[in-house]
Amino acid sequence: MKFKNITYQRVLNLGNYENKKLEVHAELDDGDDVNQAISDLKEITESNISKEILTDFEAQIKYQQKEQARLIMNNGDLRKELRELKAQIEEYKSKLPESDDLNDDDDVPFDQGSKTSDEDPDPLSSFGEVSDPSKKNEYKRDWNQKIPEFKGWR
């Protein structure tokens, strides 16, 4: 059998269903050793594929190093921003009134334990244990004077 052309091809898987192909062709002359020619083509192809892989890895390493440097810089920026936000929180906390001032319920005109029933259409009609109806109206009047923004809330 006489060989005139030989080809060696290598497919490199890149991931994500992508690949690269490297193919080498040779035309044989009379008297050339076919096995030697195949070995030569294989060596050329594998050498070039190895260089390609090495170049890709070097590019990936450079990209990862740049990304690492960017993340380190961002980390410093984020830590600085976190410190600034914590300082703002402390500043706002220092401006807040004491917690005792916020929970001062002494000005409530009725017993806090009493609840209005579901059948009671007027929530201001139940002011604790008030037996005298005139006192109930007095409490309502006091309530409306102390908290005018709640007038007509029903």
Can you put this structure into words, describing what you see?
The chain is of the alpha+beta class and 154 residues long. The protein has 3 helices and 2 strands, in the order ββααα. A two-stranded antiparallel ribbon has the order 1-2. The protein is rod-shaped. The chain starts with a strand and ends in an 8-residue tail after the last helix. The relative contact order is 0.06.
Instruction: Kindly name the structural category.
Output: alpha+beta
Q: The biggest beta sheet, please? A: 2 strands, antiparallel
Shape: rod-shaped
Number of strands: 2
Quote the distance from N terminus to C terminus: 105 Å
Average the pLDDT over all residues and give the rounded result: 76
- Widest beta sheet: strand line-up: 1-2
Percent helix, as a range, is: 40-55%
Rounded to an integer in angstroms, the radius of gyration calculated over CA atoms is 43 Å
User: β content, as a range?
Assistant: 5-15%
- How many helices? 3
Element order: H for helix, E for strand: EEHHH
Low-confidence stretches: none
